[in-house]
Write a structure and sequence with these properties.
The chain has 429 residues and is of the alpha/beta class. The chain contains 13 helices and 16 strands. The longest helix is centred in the last third of the chain and has 27 residues.
């Protein structure tokens, strides 16, 4: 099938995330390392790690070998009443990677579902502790936790992507967005005091994205806030749920933004990079206290493809690669190069802020960016980005070279200039 046929079928019949049918798309022929190759021959650096997941690069030989070995044995068996070595190996490696902080692991098909499962754990824990009245969750604004109904309810109810659902979602409790990175101790303390006043008898748990809020605005905050939430949850006897789907496995320069800062969440969701972006899989990890305190202790969830052997085998290899620690130097180097390449963009017209943390680079504009214009401006520089709202950002594969990062920065600069140019042209009409 040639690219015209692909594009025609896509435009006529396929929905894409948060897009009306028929929105412009670019057919991909193959991907290798940090690059994707379009059907028309253009080669682009995947500056998004295909939504933050492809940390080891596309078609990584170790992940390909793991997949080939497993698919020859079995691609899938049900997880009801059966188990298998890939699930056991992956579980062992996850527990080791998290330093023995957790005792139980639930495997699901996506990050959204892993957070949904985390919320179920907290609700079953509340029942087990004799508090069935605890049915509401507390979080802070500017967060994003997924697209299923429970997870949508803890996304920002006004500025988030799911604001349209309104009364269809269970009302949750929202604190203001946390103060940004670099806040004073006084600011942090004042915020935590405000947060504490929202912990009422109906709260079943606190759920946040620690240190980096992702799709809700790419906001960075101080780890001291997460440590403060840990103390508040301990004082109230409620679980702290850490959504580390975006931040886990080294993306911020830390392995996990909770554990590396001395905070052990009661429940933690991981996904995205867990399989190196090879195949979909996510996990929810719980402490012994949560697992034993739930009622019933059987978790009331059961996806058909739970702990899919093929996905588990690939994830086990990806986690092993993370455990080897090469990412630490890679992410540190990427952070340096992103700071070097993006800092000058702060002086461009229309740029409101530039910020970098680990292998995350963000250019925030002062108005929403025109999707097609910014995308194609970056593509002209050989870079694939996917802006949203006012944000042009990158989360590149860890294997990117200094030259790759410099090229990504040029692509983001082109996208920022295209935003300003488009705004000027529209203003002149």
């Amino acid at each position: 099938m040639d690219q015209r046929e692909i594009a025609a079928i896509d435009a006529a019949h396929i929905w894409h995330p948060y897009a009306e049918p028929g929105q412009f798309t670019y057919p991909v022929a193959y991907a290798s390392g940090p690059r994707i190759t379009l059907h028309d021959g253009r080669v682009l650096i995947d500056a998004m790690s295909s939504w933050w997941a492809v940390i080891h690069g596309h078609s990584n030989p170790r992940l390909v070998a793991a997949a080939e070995k497993q698919i020859a044995a079995m691609s899938h068996v049900m997880f009801g009443g059966l188990t298998h070595e890939p699930a056991a190996t992956l579980t062992q490696r996850l527990l080791e990677l998290t330093g023995g902080a957790f005792s139980q692991v639930f495997f699901s098909d996506s990050g959204s579902v892993s957070v949904e499962v985390a919320m179920k754990m907290a609700l079953q824990y509340a029942i087990g502790q004799g508090h069935p009245e605890r049915t509401t969750f507390l979080t802070w604004r500017s967060g994003y936790h997924g697209d299923t109904f429970a997870t949508m309810s803890v996304c920002d109810p006004e500025g988030g992507m799911h604001a349209m659902w309104g009364d269809a979602l269970k009302p949750q409790v929202f604190a203001p967005a946390p103060p940004i990175r670099g806040a004073s101790e006084r600011e942090r303390d004042a915020y935590l005091e405000q947060f504490a006043r929202l912990i009422t008898p109906e709260i079943a748990g606190v759920i946040v994205e620690p240190v980096v809020q992702g799709a809700g605005g790419m906001r960075f905050h101080d780890p001291e806030l997460v440590a403060g939430l840990r103390k508040l949850c301990d004082a109230s006897g409620i679980p702290l749920i850490a959504d580390e789907i975006a931040t886990g496995f080294g993306r911020t320069g830390q392995l996990f933004t909770t554990l590396d800062n001395g905070v052990v969440p009661d429940i933690m969701s991981v996904g995205k990079a867990m399989t190196g972006g090879f195949v979909t899989l996510a996990a929810t990890l719980a402490t012994e206290e949560i697992a034993r305190g739930m009622q019933p202790q059987a978790l009331m969830h059961g996806p058909t493809f739970m702990a899919n052997p093929l996905a588990c085998a690939v994830a086990a290899e990806s986690v092993a690669m993370v455990a080897e620690g090469t990412w630490r130097d890679q992410v540190g180097r990427i952070e340096t190069e992103l700071e070097r390449g993006l800092a000058p963009l702060a002086d461009l017209p229309g740029v409101a802020d530039v910020r970098v943390l680990g292998a995350i680079g963000v250019v925030e504009m002062d108005a929403d960016v025109p999707m097609r214009a910014t995308t194609e401006a970056a593509m002209a520089e050989g870079v694939w980005v996917r802006p949203f709202g006012r944000l042009i950002y990158t989360m590149p594969p860890y294997i990117c070279t200094d030259e790759d990062i410099a090229q990504i920065c040029r692509g983001i600069a082109a996208a920022a200039r295209a935003t300003t140019q488009t705004a000027t042209e529209e203003g002149a009409k």
